[in-house]
Amino acid sequence: NRRFADGEVVMGRWPGSVLYYEVQVTSYDDASHLYTVKYKDGTELALKASDIRSQSSFKNRKSQSSSSSPSRRSSSRSRSRSPGRPAKGRRRSSSQSRERKDDKKKIIQETSLALLKSTENNTRSYNGEPESTEKNDASYIILEQKLKPDLELERVHEHYSLRPRKEEKKKEEIYSEKKIFETMKVIEKASSKTKELEFGGRIGTFVLIFFLPATVFYLLLMCKQDDPTLMNFPPLPALESLWETRVFGVYLLWFFLQALFYLLPIGKVVEGLPLSNGRKLQYRINGFYAFVLTAAVIGVLSYFQFELHYLYDHFMQFAVSAAAFSMVLSIYLYIRSLKAPEEELAPGGNSGYFLYDFFTGHELNPRIGNFDLKYFCELRPGLIGWVVINLAMLLAEMKIHNLSMPSLSMVLVNSFQLLYVVDALWNEEAVLTTMDITHDGFGFMLAFGDLVWVPFVYSLQAFYLVGHPTAISWPVAAAITILNCIGYFIFRSANSQKNKFRRNPADPSLAYLKFIPTATGKGLLVTGWWGFVRHPNYLGDIIMALAWSLPCGFTHILPYFYVIYFICLLVHREARDEHHCKQKYGLAWEKYCQRVPYRIFPYIY
After folding, report:
1. Residue 155, class by beta-carbon neighbours within 10 Å (0-12 exposed, 13-18 middle, 19+ buried)?
2. Cβ neighbours of residue 173 under 8 Å, at least 6 residues apart?
3. CA 407, CA 391: separation in Å to the nearest integer?
4. What is each CA distance from 416 to 203, 294, 461, 462, 477, in whole angstroms?
5. In what ranges is there compositional bias, type Basic residues (predicted)?
6. Three-class HEC string of 314-349
7. Tell me: the pLDDT tens digits for 430-489?
8. SS3 519
9. What DSSP character marks residue 235?
10. Domain extents for the chain?
11. What pTM value is reported for the model?
């Protein structure tokens, strides 16, 4: 019994009003018999079939109301014209209208004079000089006679003037707009609730809160073993050995040092993408400067004989300290999000379920003044910390194995991952267009990911090589380097293309690119890297991850955990992006998928 097809443009009634607007049908639910429609401003609502009408019915009504019958017209004309009045000369001449205006002015002047006279007479009578009542009555009669035409004219103007009607219409329109705006606010509040839960919903997020830290500790304990095979489960260390107050103090010092670098008034200030309320937040781009300052601090510490391999010796304790800090931060973020306005909540973390919102992040952009907590943690403590950990592993390898120079495998891992981090900090502005910033809230998922997972899991290859040195030849090293360069080239050029197009689609350097226009005003690229596969940046990421693991050899699968994890993560992200883009772009996304059939791997997936 479906009446309207997907992509069809119809007229949809706005909930709570009698107004119809032009909408596009995006989908139909057979169970609830509801149509999902998209308005021109991008709002998506579910409407009944009775609230949707075809455009042709509106056009027919309009034409019927505008074209009346000839007999009606003639009768209306005959009624409006007086019988004794000739057809010609109905309009007054300009001279007659001027005379009328002059007469009116005279009447007003005479009435004012008469009023003055009457007041004078009254004052005289009060002063003891009585005036005849007949004279006063006569003057009032004259006043009444002269004021009567003016009063009648005012009444005619009140009843038949167009100005008050127009004002009334405007008031009615303003009132109806206010009503619509209020109903929109109510609908937005209801629709802003997260309906589709990810990560297995409430049960899945509850499990992940414990599973993610356990995975990190398991991987680190495995790397410490002489035989790190998957079946050889490591013995659990004593609980007291996992915590040291001094290590936690060093971690806090590191975190607040990066916060200090973030607050320095260096680097340009840019605006992020518009939020749901149209506001744009400002961000200071100084991540690369923070990296340079961190390198200077490390150099000074090395000069004063501070040994960085202290990180290697207490690596598990640092991981526990970072996990504890991320948990405390997550609790603080959730408590403060309870007082945040509705429009500042994350679209993906506003389900109303405590555990789910705590995990995914309830507030979109939590800030303390101008200090953006999510943006700071995205690139600073974890990403720069990853490079520092790799350097500590390199020095630990040299000390433990009495090497004058680090191994070729360790140099490759450090170089490849250093390039990745420096690239992210140099192109820091591009982070503002990612889903982490624009869509995901800041909760346990991002806090743990930024502060624990990135520095301690991404440095797994370097940590593995300290205890399990692997020798590789120069030709093999050259081949791995070429593979990493290919992955980096795809990753960087695809991201640059996307970010340039998002910022300024009219950029002359992008004139050769073709795109599909969407209802939101944005375009979907169908040429360049984004016409090759739907997520070319993910393809580059996976190639680079493989190049980072190859220097560790093929003795154990543990160093390749990162590759397996990265493929799983990107496939999940790709599925989430697909769902999000389908909802956002509707029919345009379906056309894009027909033009670009492969998701990540060309001719495979």
Report:
1. exposed
2. none
3. 13
4. 38, 19, 11, 11, 12
5. 74-93
6. CHHHHHHHHHHHHHHHHHHHHHHHCCCCHHHECCCC
7. 888 888 888 889 999 999 999 999 999 999 999 999 999 999 999 999 999 999 999 999
8. coil
9. P
10. 8-57, 201-470, 472-604
11. 0.67
Residues 366, 370: Cα–Cα separation, whole Å:
10
Helix (H, G, I), strand (E, B) or coil at 17: coil
Contacts of 495 (CB under 8 A, 6+ apart): 427, 430, 537
Cβ count near 362 (within 10 Å): 28
Instruction: Residue 208: name the closest of 495, 448, 45 by CA.
Output: 448
| 573-600 confidence digits (pLDDT tens) | 777 777 777 777 778 888 888 888 888 7
Side chain identity at residue 331, one-letter code: I
Q: Which amino acid is at 229?
A: T
Q: Phi-psi category of 89—alpha, beta or left, where left has phi over 0 and alpha has psi -120 to 50?
A: left
Pull the structure tokens for residue 183. Answer: 């109903």
The H or E element containing residue 114 is: helix 94-126
Residue with structure tokens 């004002």?
167
CATH code assigned to 8-57 = 2.30.30.140
Q: Which three-class secondary structure state does DSSP give residue 279?
A: coil
**Scanning the structure block, which residue is given the tokens 């990560």?**
199
CA distance 100 to 516: 65
CB distance 179 to 173 below 8 Å:
no
| 596 Cα distance to chain centroid | 25
In the beta sheet, which residues pair with residue 596? none
| The total number of residues written for the chain in this structure | 605
Task: At 308, list the tokens.
Answer: 């960085």
Helix (H/G/I), strand (E/B), else coil: 268: strand
- Which positions ≥6 away from 177 have C-beta within 8 Å? none
Residue 147: count of CB within 10 angstroms of its CB: 16
Closest CA to 139 of 131, 149, 150: 131
User: Residue type at 149?
Assistant: P
Q: In sequence order, what are the beta bridge partners of 284?
A: 269
Question: Which residues, in sequence order, are CB contacts of 87 under 8 Å at separation 6+?
Answer: 81
Residue 45, SS3 per DSSP: strand
